[in-house]
Design goal:
The chain contains eleven helices and 13 strands. The strands form three sheets. The protein has a six-stranded mixed β-sheet with strand order 5-6-7-3-8-9, with helices on both faces. A four-stranded antiparallel β-sheet has the order 11-12-10-13, with helices on one face. It has a three-stranded antiparallel β-sheet with strand order 2-1-4, covered by helices on one side. With 308 residues, it is α/β, with parallel strands linked by helices. It folds into two domains: 213 residues, 3-Layer(aba) Sandwich (Rossmann fold); 80 residues, Alpha-Beta Plaits (2-Layer Sandwich), CATH 3.30.70.
């Protein structure tokens, strides 16, 4: 299957400042998460994908074509920027109709499409003639999603769509995105809110310092971590005693005991050996264990490891 987005040796420089440095990756269909700290190069990559800027070096293909100065490619892309650029006095219907007309739709079609897209993103009909300036952050995000969908794109690019939303708002936007993906829309979503990305996205692109550090399915990225030290948290009645027994047994490389807590955080020497032998060591230590938890395979821990 041809990748939706494909980069080979892609670089972008702003004078002497590096925005993106020789990155290569492929993104397939479905929902893909783009993650990285501030300054990682996410916004530069999004601008390249949406045809706002051109590469300094290398190649970028979207649907098999270069997006720069290609209206036939850009009309297949919907873009939802991080910042708000909606005049506060406009209502969603009027704003979307005007954007639809700019996309080449006649007014009647633009009006029908506006109503359809507001239905799709879940903005209630009672709010559609109210000024956007009166809307909550979550309602504004729905309107922005609707404008990105007004021309029925094949690829939806979202820059920090969860930013500023409360947990309920994030859950509602996540549900909208899942329904869009089920309907065949390919989605690239940039976010710092990693738990949402882990539950939403089948693929990930992890960035830092203008480079792609890891890309592929969640399982593919997890499988690449087999050489990294795994960390385990254990709650017990005697954390220091347990840690000493495990250290003497050669099962851990180190440990941290949280102050005023019954938890000890272990850095494992050899994870398979630890899980094979640790119950016997615990029995010998006569420590009562309440809970054992490993977070190494979570997206959050993967992200921390590849960006530090």
């Amino acid at each position: 299957m041809t990748p939706i987005i494909q980069a080979k040796g892609l670089s972008r420089f702003y004078g002497i400042v590096m925005g993106l440095n020789n990155v290569s990756f492929e993104i397939g269909d479905g929902l893909t998460g783009l993650v990285g700290p501030n300054g990682a190069g996410k916004t530069t990559l999004i601008r390249l994908i949406t045809g706002q800027i051109r590469p300094s070096a290398g190649d970028l293909l979207v649907f098999g074509q270069r997006p720069w100065n290609r209206p036939d490619v850009l009309r297949r892309i919907g873009y939802c920027p991080e910042g708000d650029a909606i005049h506060g006095e406009l209502n969603p219907i009027d704003w979307l109709v005007s954007l639809g007309c700019l996309s080449g739709l006649n007014k009647a079609t633009a009006l029908a499409r506006s109503v359809q897209m507001l239905d799709r993103v879940g903005l209630e009909a009672a709010h559609r003639r109210k000024s956007v300036g009166r809307f909550s952050k979550g309602m504004k995000q729905r309107v922005k999603l609707a404008q990105a969908l007004i021309h029925e794109p094949d690829l939806l690019v979202l820059d920090e769509p969860m930013n500023g939303l409360d947990p309920m708002g994030r859950r509602e936007i996540s549900d909208v995105l899942l329904k869009l993906a089920e309907g065949g829309v390919h989605i690239l979503i940039s976010s710092h809110i990693l738990p949402e990305l882990e539950s939403l996205c089948s693929q990930l692109v992890m960035m830092n310092w203008g480079r792609v550090l890891a890309a592929g399915s969640q399982q593919h990225i997890r499988n690449d971590l087999h050489t990294w030290s795994e960390r385990v948290t254990i709650r017990c009645d005697q954390p220091s005693v347990l840690a000493r027994h495990l250290l003497d047994g050669g099962l851990i490389r180190g440990f941290e005991i949280e102050p005023d807590s019954d938890a000890v955080i272990l850095t494992l020497q050899d994870p398979p050996d630890f899980y094979r032998r640790w119950t016997q060591v615990v029995l010998e230590s006569q420590v009562a264990v309440f809970e054992i938890r490993s977070e190494t395979r979570s997206l959050n821990q993967i992200f921390e490891r590849v960006t530090t």
